[in-house]
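This section describes the prediction task in plain terms. A model, or a person checking by hand, is given the sequence of a single protein chain and must write out its three-dimensional structure as a string of tokens. No templates, partner chains or ligands are provided. The sample shown here is typical of the held-out split.
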Amino acid sequence: MAPFIPPPVGGTADELAAVVALREYADRLEDAAVERALREGWSWSDVAEALGVTRQAVHKKHIRRLDDAGIDLRRRRG
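The expected answer:
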């Protein structure tokens, strides 16, 4: 029996492609919002609370990208 190969377009394939696109877009929005918040002086804890995650989770997800971008992350309030 041959494996199921979904059609490249239409119906379910389009729905799943839309889910992938939305996830990628949401990740880009989160990256930009976290970067802006930190540039404005928000603490990691402030950002985490706003996103509904732990400080450790948001830090782990974003620290390397922000550090690579040269953003000063040392001076944060609260």
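For orientation: The radius of gyration is 18 Å.
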